[in-house]
Amino acid sequence: MLLFIVGICNETSKTEFICICSLGWQGSNCEIQTNYCQNVTCQNNGVCRSLTKNYTCECLGDSYSGRYCQIESNTLVFHQTISKSFAFIAIIAMASVMMIVIVMDIMKYCFGIDVISKDLKRIRQRTKVRKRKTPIIIRFIYVN
Predict the structure, then answer these.
(1) Per-residue pLDDT tens for 1-41?
(2) Kind and range of the H or E element at 118?
(3) CATH code of the domain made up of 35-72
(4) Is residue 126 classed exposed, middle or buried when 0-12, 13-18 and 19+ CB atoms within 10 A define those classes?
(5) pTM
(6) CATH of 1-34 among 2.60.120, 2.30.30, 2.10.25, 1.10.287
(7) Percent of the chain scored above 90 by pLDDT?
């Protein structure tokens, strides 16, 4: 009889023996550690770790918890709700700007109403006044 740390082996003949493995070990010589994570899938990027007689899912960060990292934390739910709200507001803002542009184009090209023509004329007049002023060139003469 041979005693190993992971099992007990008994000789059945001079060339053969049979081993009874301790819990968590398997194989003909008890050389393979049992992988309890073989059929376990941890959720949300959790990492499965084999223990002596069991397994555990180690959740990355503080966002998830539970046996399989399946429970979302309150802060994660709050952040997801806030980001969805901001996305909704951003979509509404973009749609509103697009609608204003479309309405302005329809008013200008279909009905001949130009809402900003007065402002454009005033801006063009200011730029013309600025362009009319020619710079005065002064040539300095240096005397020794």
Answers:
(1) 555 567 888 888 888 888 888 887 888 888 888 888 888 99
(2) helix 117-132
(3) 2.10.25.10
(4) exposed
(5) 0.50
(6) 2.10.25
(7) 36
